[in-house]
């Protein structure tokens, strides 16, 4: 386990800067990270959080200033080469597991001492112990192929790799949106482990747009805006309102829920029993992995599998797992934005590039995509801004049904509020939304909610019956609990 050596901080940044051409992503950042603290790093998408942690984990070299690491033996090393010896681990927002390898084989990639005869047994023991310690009852076998796991299970494996014991014990673990694919019960397990890890002398950098988690687990909050640190105080000195204000957004109020007219016609029905009316926002709730995403996929593919692309399409899809289901990684921001509208942009057999550019610029402004040039590669954007592009792609169409599979992963609180308002406006105009989310606060914004358990709808909630208590009560088998 982590040892609590006295002495120098784990990491020290002194005037650290990072530029990409003319773009200054990080501007003279000075920061220290000590043992035993959970430091929450917050800010809107594009504020510089990912650049900062990539300097700390050695993925990027600073353009100016220094990054220093305190080693277990008391030495101080400057430069990214000291990251591994200092016990710095990173769990990225965009999961980096190799899907064709097993869980234990993925552990071998960062842990280079796993060699020779018997390394598989040792790797299985290390990753199994980490999973058991962080996520009791996880059910993930070390020899399972990662590509066969759900998104939530892959995120659990990536987190466990970050905390797993090795030749060099983890001393600072960077967690970038670690609960974005986890349901509330699994997220609570992780937060409990973070507190225990820090109490034992470890440290965590916790990046999250979920304010409740930040206040629950962080001992200190660092606010970033436009590549600079604009606030650095103990968590107890912030409130939710002052923290959101420090990030540069207006604090979000509760979005008004509006039940669809009960006499409006049902426009869709799925084999699972899920129904929706025109202009209704229908939520899919329950513990992660209980059939919600599969139900959405079956519905969407059933409406859009015809090879003849229509304009408007029968339904559009906003993916939460954008790397797998959403982005065209070799395309530009503009092409990714306009993809679903291509049939309507064709003139005499060719795409009207001017109309395509105007469409992309319009949605850049409407949804706040942070880029100076929409011809840049989509992967040049932060994760949250990539997700904005997927929303823009869907809402730019006139599709009557929008299917959303946990779409707010990695999106900052200001953008979430803006998107919630856009969804409600579109619903009032007659568009129907099917919305699966692992965030209870989002489900509470829906007009009607279907709770899934073990692949089956076990409850339908409407009006005042849509509460967190009701959702949780139906998510668990009460006979088993008793």
TrEMBL record:
Cross-referenced InterPro entries: AAA+_ATPase (IPR003593), ABC_carbohydrate_import_ATPase (IPR050107), ABC_transporter-like_ATP-bd (IPR003439), ABC_transporter-like_CS (IPR017871), P-loop_NTPase (IPR027417)
Superkingdom of this protein's organism: Bacteria
Keyword Repeat attributed: yes
Domain ABC transporter as annotated: residue spans: 11-251, 254-479
UniProt keywords, alphabetically: ATP-binding, Nucleotide-binding, Repeat, Sugar transport, Transport
SUPFAM superfamilies linked to this entry: P-loop containing nucleoside triphosphate hydrolases
Tagged with keyword Nucleotide-binding: yes
Signal peptide annotation: none
One GO molecular-function entry: ATP hydrolysis activity
A Pfam match: ABC_tran
Name under which the protein is recorded: Sugar ABC transporter ATP-binding protein
Organism of provenance: Szabonella alba
